[in-house]
Task: inverse folding
């Protein structure tokens, strides 16, 4: 069945899974959001934005620009936390995502307004409006989600699940020897999110670093020549330069889009349930401590993605962006 | 002749490592120093003396620190048995430990043969840390140091993040790792997986029918149970003997990387984690050579050779 036909069918049958995306766009966030918007299995209900790859004003602006590019300004955007729960904002990650978070590509100023409430309130409102239905997908630091839990702890029982891009279970980190950036930048928030009783899935570096978009793949993607693939081609050069310098990689690791791929096609991932804690202090700040041997005798609290069909994810991405 | 100094919290796998060093031609063990760890230091000293006696050796054994620098002692009876030797309750050793303290023995041994001594540590690093504080220059006078300890950004055995020896006395490990000593770290991960002695291999060891082979299996009977039932391993893991095999023959380590390695001391959750900067994100000068892979067949052959 081709994508469009499936899209129509799933609309009719109302099969699309409602998703709220909390994000700090971010080059790979932008790529992830586009994948979500172009996948009939998902119904993107809202975007909420957070500090992270850029400051929160910039990420709120970027989120709306991406939606307007996709002609989806009907999707509400709420701006969220400007800094981590107890720490100062770490600063723009310009050497990875460019000074504006989108590879220094300037887009027209967004026309659509922001929702008139902070992201944490909006998350609570969206969850309460559709009890048991909504999946929350997080692509940045977990500050908004932690604040939402503070405001209304019951949401932990009222979401369908939380899928997060973040963490490193059995591999090295990307911002410290052991920590992944999204967890590292607000470890206290991450600890709250990991300790809350909702069904939590971690799409971490263990899998996202196995999915690599290399130059030939990106060339094929660009050949499709639609406005989405052109946009992607325009924002990725600095992302490639970073991966090239740090990992000697002629392309880049596919972090955030892999988390969206998990929502669309979970069968592409192998998961394992573990008891996971988040380190908030010391040289291991932001480390996701996975009790693989069951040393603590605690019930698992996280479904951890441990392996991925990387080709499958890459094929899915290309198919959805080029159809 | 290579000259070894072994610092150990002698319990079942330490004893096998000591035996390997004592029974390898071309290696002279100058001294054995004991430290609190798997068992209290008095018990570990007895276990070391018993092992030396079994080998018919006359190596002096020096008793050392009876607790970590700051932390409460935490022994591993559940893993090694109440005597550290699988509950065998061996007869008391004929010899006594020397009167000199282990810390002074470490310093004297190293400074009396500058550039000659290979230090192999099999337990918490308390003795070595105190020796470094008392005589910092030993860091430059020791030939090389093999540390059984840590887990290179991988799963721990006492907590999810940490290996027992480093976890026991993380402050001591911190001092040693940042001392400038030329350290090769042989982490706990290298004794797992295919590196364990499986049932067939243990049967082979038994069939050697020497006192050394029987001793090796008998003192490790509780450890075997713990490995299988608690850690879910496929046989007997022997961390100290694996490290000793690398100290005996460095080429058993097939992949070695120089990294900046830090030891976590501030947190409880990751206490004693060896944080290895594999991607060099900290921009700090490498301080440790980390063993990343071993030749499993040759580690086992090195063990068998010393048991025959």
Result:
């Amino acid at each position: 069945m081709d994508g469009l036909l499936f899209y129509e069918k799933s609309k009719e049958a109302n099969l699309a899974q409602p998703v709220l995306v909390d994000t700090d766009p971010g080059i790979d966030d932008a790529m992830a959001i586009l994948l979500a918007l172009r996948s009939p299995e998902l119904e993107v209900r809202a975007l909420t934005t957070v500090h992270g790859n850029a400051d929160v004003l910039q990420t709120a602006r970027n989120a709306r620009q991406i939606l307007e590019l996709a002609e989806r300004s009907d999707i509400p955007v709420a701006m969220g936390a400007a800094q981590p729960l107890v720490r100062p904002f770490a600063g723009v990650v310009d050497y990875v995502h460019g000074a504006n978070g989108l590879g220094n590509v300037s887009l027209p100023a967004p026309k659509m307004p922001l929702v008139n409430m902070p992201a944490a309130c909006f998350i609570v409102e969206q969850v309460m409006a559709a009890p048991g239905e909504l999946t929350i997908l997080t692509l940045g630091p977990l500050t908004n989600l932690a604040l939402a839990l503070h405001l209304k702890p019951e949401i932990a029982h009222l979401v369908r699940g939380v899928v997060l891009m973040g963490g490193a279970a059995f591999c090295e980190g990307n911002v410290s020897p052991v920590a992944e950036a999204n967890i590292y930048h607000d470890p206290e928030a991450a600890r709250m999110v990991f300790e809350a009783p909702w069904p939590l899935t971690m799409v971490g570096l263990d899998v996202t670093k196995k999915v690599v978009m290399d130059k030939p793949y990106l060339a094929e993607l660009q050949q499709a020549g639609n406005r989405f693939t052109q946009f992607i081609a325009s924002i990725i050069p600095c992302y490639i330069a970073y991966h090239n310098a740090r990992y000697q990689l002629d392309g880049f690791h596919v972090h955030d889009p892999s988390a969206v791929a998990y929502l669309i096609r979970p069968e592409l991932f192998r998961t394992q349930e573990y008891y996971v804690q988040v380190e908030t202090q010391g040289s291991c700040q932001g480390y996701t401590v996975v009790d693989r041997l069951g040393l603590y005798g605690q019930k698992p609290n996280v479904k951890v993605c441990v392996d991925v069909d990387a080709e499958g994810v890459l094929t899915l991405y290309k198919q959805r962006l080029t159809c | 002749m290579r000259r070894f100094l072994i610092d150990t919290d002698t319990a079942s796998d330490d004893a096998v490592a000591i035996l390997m060093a004592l029974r390898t031609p071309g290696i002279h063990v100058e001294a054995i120093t004991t430290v609190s760890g798997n068992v209290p230091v008095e018990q570990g000293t007895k276990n070391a003396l018993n092992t030396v006696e079994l080998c018919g050796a006359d190596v002096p054994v020096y008793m050392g620190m009876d607790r970590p620098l700051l932390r409460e002692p935490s022994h591993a009876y559940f893993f090694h048995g109440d005597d550290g030797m699988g509950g065998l309750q061996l007869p008391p050793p004929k010899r006594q430990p020397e009167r000199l303290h282990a810390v002074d023995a470490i310093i004297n041994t190293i400074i009396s043969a500058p550039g000659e001594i290979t230090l192999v540590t099999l337990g918490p690093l308390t003795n070595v840390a105190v020796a470094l504080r008392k005589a910092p220059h030993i860091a430059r006078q020791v030939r090389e140091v093999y540390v059984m300890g840590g887990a290179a950004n991988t799963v721990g055995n006492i907590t999810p993040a940490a290996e027992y020896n480093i976890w026991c006395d993380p402050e001591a490990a911190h001092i040693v790792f940042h001392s400038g000593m030329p350290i090769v770290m042989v982490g706990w991960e290298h004794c797992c997986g295919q590196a364990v002695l499986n049932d067939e291999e243990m049967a082979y060891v038994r069939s050697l029918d020497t006192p050394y082979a029987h001793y090796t299996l008998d003192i490790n009977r509780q450890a075997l149970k713990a490995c299988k039932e608690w850690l879910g391993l496929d046989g007997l893991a022997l961390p100290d003997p694996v490290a000793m095999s690398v100290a005996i023959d460095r080429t058993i380590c097939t992949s070695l990387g120089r990294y900046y390695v830090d030891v976590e001391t501030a947190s409880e959750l990751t206490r004693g984690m060896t944080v290895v900067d594999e991607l060099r994100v900290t921009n700090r000068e490498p301080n440790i050579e980390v063993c990343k892979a071993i030749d499993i067949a040759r580690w086992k052959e090195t063990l068998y050779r010393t048991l025959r």
